[in-house]
Structure formats: C-alpha cells, structure tokens
Amino acid sequence: MTELNIIKLRQLDVSILLIFLGLLRHRKAADVAVEMGLSQPAISHALTRLRAVFDDPLFLRRPHGMEPTSVALAIEPDIRAAVERIGHALRGDERFAPRDYQGTLRISALDYEGATLVPALLAALRIEAPCLSLSVHALPRDRAMQALAEARIDLALGFFWDLPETLIATPLIEETYLVAARADHPVLKAEDRLSAYLEAAHLVVAPGGDMTGIVDTSLAQDGLSRTVALSVPQFLTAFPALAESDLVATLPARIVRQYASAFGISHCAAPIALRPFTSSIVWHARDARNPLHRWVADTAERVLARGWSAF
Q: Is residue 222 exposed (0-12), middle (13-18) or buried (19+ Cβ within 10 Å)?
C-alpha cells in the first residue's frame, strides 16, 4: 500500500462512509441527518472530508436534491462492501450458515479417530455444509498441539491430557478396551482367562514402534507381565495380523466392534482393569468464537450421541 493511500485511509472513518451511503440513498442531507441523528453541519463537514479524500465533488446540488457524480456511483459498491464487512465482523457468528460454507477443514486424527469418528463426522457435516471438505492429518499428540498453535490445522481429534490454556477441548466419548483374536483362539474360551491371556503372545499398536503399552503398565502394578511378539503402527493393521496368527490384542472397544467381524476376529472382555480414555475435539483459544469451529464441535457431539449410543 502506498504512503498516499495510507494518508487517505486515515482521513476516513465508518461514520463518513455511512453518510456517503446515506446521501446515495436519500439524495438529501437533511434526511441523512435525521436518519443518523446528526446535525446538517456535521453532514456537510463529512461531505467535505469525502471530497478531499476522493478528489471529486461526489454529490452536486440540484433543485431536487444531491445528484451523485460518476465517481460516487463507481466507488459505491466498494464502500458498501467495506461497511458490510465491518458489520459482519461486529455481528460475529450471527450470519454463519453452514450451507454457504465453501472450504477445507484441516483436522488432525490418528487412525483410531480416523476409522471411527471421521467418516460419520464428515457425513454429518456435509448434510448441512455440502461444499465442505476435510483434510485429515495423522499427527501424534505433541505435533497436533504444535500444529494448532501454528494454525497449520483447524481442529484435532484424539486423546489429550494436560492441555495448555491456549487450547480448548470438548470431550466426545469415553473409550474402554476389548481383547481381540481369531475366532477359535483359546483365550476366548478359557475358563481361567487371565492365565490364558498372560500365556498368549500379544500384538500392540504403537505409532512409534514401542513394544509396551497401557496393558503392560497395568500388569506391572500387580507384578505380572506378558510377551509382546508384534508391534504395529495402526489399529486397522492389527486385524489382518490377528486373523493370520495366534496373537491376541487389547484394543479400543469401538474399533473392535466396528471392524473385527470383517476380518473374522472375535472378542471378549479384558481380564484386567484398564483405565478408560476420552477422545476430544480440540482447537486453539484464538478460535474460541469462530463459528465454524463451534459448529463442527457441536456436530461431533450430536453424531457421537446418536451414532455410538449402542456401544
């Protein structure tokens, strides 16, 4: 922006822009004064400032009123648009309409949320916002929080704890665990399930390749341990591995119930107590009043309450 433009912009304010639009509408300074609760000298002073900024008379006095010049008519759409944009900013989310939204929503979700939440969420969102698209980023917790801070994503789905004050979370569901294995696996039929469970070879899901997880932490509290034979990075990778082996896996209940049968996998309750976890939708505090973020979070809650109530 040139220095000249900056100087001219500093001479403008919303009041004189409203006076300009009022003169175009009424063509009489007296009517604009009454409408805006101003004196006629104030209207005249504003018109003088407008003429100086735009270097044009803008309105010519005629017997029937104020006649706009060609310059006034040419700049009217831009001035009206500027005033409407300011009004929109002041109204906040009053005029947000999902059906009019066109854009891509960037969401972080690892495969658990990606496989269980994202499909239902996208379907629900597109009912109200048919032009919306989702871009899903597979980011671990720490990287997802950093991406939110840097505005590289809009929202994050997942299990988050000890969030900083800069992030806002809406809890969505509380998740428990099931033991999954091929349909004829001895663990599923054992009378002493805990003993059979401890004797079996296990599969763990760990994006970083770890060979231990929450099960090992719980077992260690009781002085017990298990044998982990395979670590895979994604939950959906676990199912074909279980179907073709004697391994067992302790997995989130919803993903087991949703996908296990497609791979011929059966399941049973875990023989040990495991701490449940909560999946939340998280966004940055700078977007606390962002109507898009609020609408998506509200929709996610509705989808979960309706679609996952059977679990």
A: exposed
Residue 9 has pLDDT above 80, yes or no: no
Express each pLDDT in 70-92 by its tens digit. Answer: 998 999 888 888 887 787 677 65
**Long-range CB contacts (within 8 A, 24+) of 140-145:** 140/110, 140/207, 140/208, 143/108, 144/108, 144/282, 145/282
Closest CA relative to residue 8, chosen from 66, 59, 75: 75
CB-based burial, 126-144: b 16+ in 10 Å, e otherwise: eeebeebebebbebebeeb
d(CA 275, CA 176): 8
Residue 310 has pLDDT above 80, yes or no: no
Instruction: Decide: residue 59, CB within 10 A, 0-12 exposed, 13-18 middle, 19+ buried.
Output: buried
Give, to the nearest 10 degrees, the angle between helix 40-54 and helix 29-36.
Answer: 110
pLDDT for 248-281, tens place per residue?
A: 999 999 999 999 999 999 999 999 999 999 999 9
| Residue 70, Cβ density class (10 Å: 0-12 exposed, 13-18 middle, ≥19 buried) | exposed
Distance, in Å, from the CA atom of 140 to the CA atom of 159, rounded to the nearest integer, reads 10
Rounded CA separation 166/300 (Å):
21
Whole-angstrom distance, CA of residue 141 vs CA of residue 193: 34
Average pLDDT over residues 236-241: 95
The residue among 22, 19, 27 whose CA lies nearest residue 61 is 27
- Kindly report the pTM of this predicted structure: 0.67
Q: For 44-56, give one letter per residue: b (16+ CB within 10 A) or e.
A: eebbebbbebbee
CA–CA separation, 7 and 213 (whole Å): 63
Find the length of the chain: 311
* CB burial of residue 36 (10 Å; 0-12, 13-18, 19+): middle
